[in-house]
Amino acid sequence: MVDVQAVVIGLLGAAAASCAAVVMLRLAHRVPSTDRAVLDTAPRLLRVFAPLIRMLAFYLGPRLSVGFRARSLRQLQAAELDLVFLPQEWLATRLVVSLVGILAVLLAARLGQVGSGLLAGVGAGVFLWWYSARWLGEKRAAVQRRVLRDLPVYLDVLTLAVEAGASLTVAIGWCVEKTVDGPLRRGFKRALREVRAGRTRIDALRAFEHRFAMPAITSLVSALVSAEQTGASVGQVLRAQAEQRGAERFARAEKLAMEAPVKMLGPLVLCIFPCTFIVLGFPIATQLARQFGS
Q1: What is the rounded radius of gyration, in angstroms, for the C-alpha atoms of the chain?
Q2: Burial annotation 11-37 (CB, 10 A radius, 16+ → b, else e)
Q3: For residue 271, how far is the Cα from the chain centroid?
Q4: Residues 6+ apart with CB under 8 A from 184
Q5: Helix extents (H) in the chain
Q6: What is the DSSP string of 15-56?
Q7: What is the rounded end-to-end Cα distance, in angstroms, of the chain?
Q8: In the predicted model, what is the mean pLDDT of residues 234-257?
Q9: For the chain, what are the domain ranges?
Q10: Domain 145-250 is in which class?
Q11: What does residue 245 show for φ and ψ, rounded to 5 degrees?
């Protein structure tokens, strides 16, 4: 016998899904097309949801405050993701990732007949929302570590080029051509491209400083801008900056070397010492067992 209630529920569910699909299509149709290749360099899984992310970003963008946009843009620039995400696209990405996590957990709980699926889904959504912010912070920290490691080398090259008679713009061009790829090289390349497009060198350096937002970059750019405005020797400024950055890198290496024994203490106590005691104590325990057994 046909279950009328199940049939009615199925029809209502199909109608609701059809209405939701129609609404989504109408909303997506209002999103203007753009030549910007959004999410082209994002993780492959996110590219699947690029249309949904673009649609959410279109409707969320006008509702975001100027302060939120500025903060998000600074964070994306520091992580070198400002060419991948706009502020509203990053917020939409976090929302989509959290929603997908919730739906995946709910579906898994439904298939497994788990009663607490809703609570687990909400927990998964909150975790993914938090993890996306943490992922951005880790990307930003990785960029800053790479910049601090490469900056003394770049300053040495800039100093040699400027003291050899080249201008600062030409010296930056040599750095871009001769050095390996990295965040600092991409930042200098972007600043050089802005200068060649007609922007003043001071403005390009200020934008370079704003993108990284690091004390070392701020000190370098401030010294270069001051030299440009006062007519001081750029070579001497660069040499002083190179010596200071080199001393700071040596100090960081000393700090890490002194922290190594403290970091090794945990693995020693938890892993190496127990194994050593087991290896030394097993023969003794075996001999004692034999003596008391006899």
Answers
A1: 29
A2: eeeeeeeeeeeeeeeeeeeeeeeeeee
A3: 33
A4: 146, 147, 150, 151, 154
A5: 4-30, 44-48, 50-60, 66-78, 87-111, 117-163, 168-178, 183-196, 201-212, 215-230, 234-267, 273-293
A6: HHHHHHHHHHHHHHHHSPP-S--TTTTS-HHHHHTHHHHHHH
A7: 79
A8: 84
A9: 36-142, 145-250
A10: mainly alpha
A11: -65, -35
Q: Which of 73-77, 198-202, 284-288 has the least mean pLDDT?
A: 284-288
pLDDT at position 37: 47
Contact 229, 209 (CB under 8 A): no
Instruction: State the sign of the Cα–Cα–Cα–Cα dihedral 188, 193, 195, 199.
Output: negative
pTM: 0.72
Determine contact, residues 58/87, Cβ cutoff 8 Å: no
DSSP code of residue 115: T
DSSP states along 265-287: HHHIIIIIHHHHHHHHHHHHHHH
Q: Please check the confidence at residue 168 and state whether its pLDDT lies above 50.
A: yes
What's the CA gap between 87 and 66, in Å, rounded?
Answer: 10
Q: State the Cα–Cα distance between residues 254 and 250, nearest whole angstrom.
A: 6
Give the chain's largest Cα–Cα span.
95
| Rounded-to-integer distance, Cα 130 and Cα 98, Å | 9
